[in-house]
Amino acid sequence: MDIRAGDIGPREREIIEGFSQMWSKLQALIAAEERVILHDVTPSEVHCIVMIDRLDVPNVTALAKALHMTPGGVSKLTRRLLQMKAIERYQREGNRKEVLFRLTPKGEAIKKQHEELHRRRLERDFAVYQAMSEAEKESLLSFVRRYNEHLDRELEELARKSSRTP
Predict the structure, then answer these.
(1) What is the largest CA-CA distance in the chain?
(2) pLDDT in tens, 85-102
(3) What CATH number has the domain spanning 30-131?
(4) Burial class (CB in 10 A: 0-12, 13-18, 19+), 38
(5) pLDDT digits (tens, 9 = 90+) for 13-23
(6) Least C-beta-crowded within 10 Å: which of 3, 40, 124, 132?
């Protein structure tokens, strides 16, 4: 399907622009909160720390998939986290090839501060969701699910294309 700018209606434009503005504001708020409280780390670094804690096998490949990043991007992130001593490398007994990561006490502290910020954000934003009707919530959830499925397909296609490129 070939869509031109003129094909998009005013309501669709308003939705796209509204989500774009909302996302920009949310990212700015999150970045400001996490920089002030969390040892001057970026949101990407915080998300990497959280994923290292959550994954069973926190290696570069698994982190890249979980964070929707390239392995090169994850390598840069983990390098910075290693330098700030938030994570450390290790290898399993009998497998000297695979490099895994785990949190240090500093990484654990950053993760706990992030979880506390997350809890506070939920409390801060709760009034918005509480004011919504069940029908509004269901409509919004339906859209979010559909759009996430769309984005998953786009990411899969992008990964397929990039794996074919030399």
Answers:
(1) 60
(2) 999 999 988 888 889 999
(3) 1.10.10.10
(4) buried
(5) 898 899 899 98
(6) 3
